[in-house]
Specification:
By secondary structure, the protein is of the alpha/beta class. The chain has twelve helices and eight strands. It is globular.
Length: 279
């Protein structure tokens, strides 16, 4: 079982964490579940991981993990707590920053509040190897800001036509930005590995033809009854059912992310880049 404790944040040997945003064109595709289970899997590979619930309007990562956090980002915004004080240690190497439910947009913050958040967030970049952002669904200003400022973007979709259409729409909007991070697909709820490959190849082909962007597949997650069982029990499936097919898929995705992050260099000042979108 996951047993949250208050962590002691110590600097990582890496100067700057690599920031990976996880987003989707629509809700209900398993984005948050993938973010949570991927974070656990990466931490168990010996990496220092910070998972931030960046879905400010309807933050729910703590619910999926069955973690009761006394404080969240709203307390940091009001300068009642520091990032260090609201960070919850889930297990060795993994910390959770609970989102501020009910905050419609970072744009609603005053310049002073934004600057305060930048200063608080900055300490995270030197205390982790990878920062995972569970972004909201869709193409809101918040989602685009986090996605465009990240070092890597994982776009989660399913084989359903509506999910594919919305995922393509998200990619299309992002390609119009002055700078777009490398984007990769994660195909969830596939019946077979072959189905996931076919779906990813189809989307990649359309993106290359009409958007001129490379959209490779980072991984996929098979449809697995253990996932729904774990969600109902509010335990991440890699913890409750470590040997199930979905857990094997997450392990493969974690291996890919680990290797890709080791080979890439992070850009400094992620959170400063994010908040520039709202000035």
């Amino acid at each position: 079982q996951l047993r949250p404790t208050q962590p002691q944040i110590t600097p990582s040997r890496r100067r700057t964490a690599r920031v990976i945003a996880i987003a989707s064109g629509k809700g209900g595709v398993g984005k948050t579940n993938i973010a949570v289970n991927l974070a656990i899997s990466l931490a168990r590979r010996g990496l220092r991981i910070v998972l931030i619930d960046a879905d400010l309007g309807t933050a729910n990562v703590d619910v999926v993990m069955n973690v009761q956090s006394r404080f969240d980002l709203s307390h940091v915004i009001r300068r009642e707590r520091t990032i260090d004080e609201i960070a919850v240690s889930i297990e060795s190497g993994l910390r959770l920053i609970a989102g501020a439910s009910g905050l419609a947009s970072v744009a609603d913050l005053s310049p002073l509040d934004r600057q305060s958040l930048i200063e608080e967030f900055a300490c995270l970049e030197s205390t982790a190897d990878i920062i995972l952002l569970d972004c909201g669904a869709g193409i809101s200003q918040n989602v685009l800001a986090f996605a465009q400022s990240s070092d890597e973007l994982l776009v989660v979709t399913t084989p359903e036509p509506t999910a594919l259409t919305d995922a393509y729409a998200l990619v299309k909007v992002l390609t119009r930005a002055p700078w777009t991070p490398p984007m990769r697909l994660v195909v969830s709820q596939t019946n077979t590995l072959r189905e996931g490959q076919v779906v990813a190849e189809r989307v990649a082909s359309v993106a290359a033809r009409f958007l001129g962007v490379a959209l490779d597949c980072a991984g996929q997650v098979l449809r697995d009854q253990h996932v729904a069982l774990a969600v109902r029990q509010r335990v991440p499936f890699v913890v409750k059912y470590p040997d199930c097919p979905a857990s094997a898929c997450i392990a493969a995705l974690a291996s890919w992310v680990d290797a890709a992050s080791a080979a890439a260099s992070a850009r400094s000042g992620f959170f400063r880049r994010v908040f520039r979108f709202f000035y």
